[in-house]
Design a protein that fits this description.
By secondary structure, the protein is mainly beta. Helix content is about 5%, strand content about 40%. About 20% of the residues have low confidence.
Length: about 350
């Protein structure tokens, strides 16, 4: 079984297993060739603070409450008035099972301390079998799951551009690929606006990473913000909100779909680009000019992807005139040598 992990409460609005067909909008991406570069650990700047021994950390020592307590059954309702009893009382329900214990807090340690003063710091983290990768607007710190410090460096240094300003980092651990992924926006509100996508070259995030630069706008009129990342073992999906550098008006979502196999190898990478506002409802359609904002791709977990698998995305869809808005589900899938975006709801 494959699982599509969508953000927080938005995922509860949809039943993914019921989505079997698209609703007619089928938009192809523009195939492009990009070149990834590999950043080796020794190429990082001198502010990498690698620790030979684990950083001091305090395990959570409190004895977990209720761990040895016997499981209790849920209380059964006893209506005061028999007439209020369940009309289907003749069909006896199976007895409730025992209450499940909450996951126990095993240990804690401070992971990331952004001392540069970025406000807000926008901290994020991803966890693999043996490592924890934490990021904030200015810092990257990697530790073992026991708290041992491996890497402590600036976000700009980690992304291979020490003189640039990075923000809005996102990181995930892709279980199917056994790799860590990250994305951040660089030099916002300037002609140099871009995104950098990072993929660990192995399951060890403290070793080499492949870096892929995505130009926000070759015409230098738009700036990218609020990058998001997801995908499966076949495709990596990156999205960003696009704003005009002059005046800051929101233009639409831009999306890049990256072939995971070529990205894993480094060097030449196959990708497909969807221009800003690609998802805007055409004139004459119901809720014309309806377009997405903060489109978030799912993280797909499970056995290897089938050629027909859809990767779902959710966004806040809105239109200024007439005023309208909703949460929208869409998906990306392969179609021959191309990749398509389609509305699901």
């Amino acid at each position: 079984m494959r699982y599509h992990a969508l953000p927080r409460a938005l995922a509860a609005a949809f039943s993914l297993s019921c989505v079997a067909t698209s609703l007619g909008d089928s938009i192809p991406g523009t195939r492009t060739s990009l070149t990834a570069r590999t950043l080796m650990p020794e190429q990082r700047a001198a502010d990498d603070a690698r620790a030979a021994t684990p950083e001091p950390h305090t395990p959570h020592s409190e004895t977990p409450r209720g761990i040895d307590a016997p499981a209790q059954s849920l209380p059964q309702p006893h209506p005061a008035n028999p007439a209020e009893a369940n009309p289907f009382a003749s069909r006896e329900a199976a007895p409730c099972g025992p209450l499940l214990q909450s996951p126990l807090l095993y240990e804690t340690f401070e992971h990331l301390n952004d001392t540069v003063g970025s406000t807000p710091p926008n901290p994020v983290a991803s966890v693999g079998p043996n490592h924890v990768v934490g990021m904030a607007n200015r810092r990257v710190r990697m530790k073992t799951r026991a708290g041992g410090l491996l890497i402590n460096t600036g976000l700009n240094t980690f992304m291979g551009s020490p003189s640039s300003v990075f923000s809005d980092p996102q990181t995930i651990y892709n279980r199917s690929l056994d790799r860590f992924l990250a994305v951040a926006t660089a030099d916002p509100n300037s002609p140099a606006s871009r995104l950098v996508v990072a993929l660990s070259a192995s399951a060890n995030p403290a070793a080499a990473w492949h870096l892929l630069t995505l130009d926000a706008d070759p015409s230098n009129a738009l700036s990218a913000s609020d990058a998001r990342i997801g995908g499966n073992d076949d495709l990596v999906i990156v999205t960003a909100n696009m704003h005009a550098i002059s005046g800051g008006a929101f233009v639409g979502v831009q999306m890049w779909v990256i072939d995971a196999t070529s990205f894993l190898d480094g060097g030449d990478v196959v990708s497909w680009q969807f221009a800003p506002g690609f998802d805007t409802q055409p004139a004459g359609a119901l809720f014309a000019n309806l377009r997405g904002f903060s489109m978030v791709p799912a993280e797909v977990v499970g056995p290897p992807a089938s050629p027909l698998e859809r990767i779902f995305l959710v966004d806040n869809t809105w239109a200024a005139s007439p005023a309208a808005g909703s949460a929208r589900l869409s998906h990306v899938r392969r179609s021959g040598a191309n990749v398509l975006w389609e509305r699901s709801t």
